[in-house]
């Protein structure tokens, strides 16, 4: 499984992000490209503990049982629900959001597993650094496919 802790996998994601343009159109979902980049950046912040989100009641009930969907080899479903605090609805600048996300990915990859938060994921609960690395790769891959890159 691909992981953001692997330099080759991180570089693959970075190359794909750099292909995004202000006029890139989504294949599904409501976010435009700048909002998607900001959303992914906000999710990076949750993984590193730079920001937090409360556990959802549904996550507390079933999160542990379904958490492999976050880091296994199967693609994430289109239009999957997300953490409410990282839904981006305001206007953003693509190039600015792109650079912010790129820097966060580079930092995550370079710092290694110790960068991961010990706080639980808002839905899936406690994740190991390996699960965070694989899950972040999968999340980014999902959104880059959303925009055909």
From TrEMBL:
It holds the Pfam family DUF1569. Gene3D superfamilies: dinb family like domain (1.20.120.450). This is DUF1569 domain-containing protein. It comes from Paenibacillus oryzae.
């Amino acid at each position: 499984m691909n992981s953001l802790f692997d330099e080759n996998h991180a570089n693959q994601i970075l190359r794909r992000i750099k292909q995004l343009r202000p006029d890139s159109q989504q294949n599904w979902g409501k976010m435009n490209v700048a909002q998607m980049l900001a959303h992914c950046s906000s999710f990076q912040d949750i993984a590193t503990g730079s920001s937090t989100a409360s556990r959802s009641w549904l996550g507390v009930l079933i999160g542990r049982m379904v958490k492999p969907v976050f880091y296994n080899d199967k693609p994430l479903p289109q239009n999957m629900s997300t953490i409410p605090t990282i839904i981006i609805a305001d206007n953003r600048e693509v190039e600015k959001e792109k650079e912010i996300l790129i820097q966060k990915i580079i930092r995550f990859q370079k710092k290694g597993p110790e960068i991961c938060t010990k706080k639980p994921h808002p839905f899936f609960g406690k994740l190991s650094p390996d699960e965070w690395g694989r899950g972040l790769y999968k999340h980014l891959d999902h959104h880059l496919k959303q925009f055909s890159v």
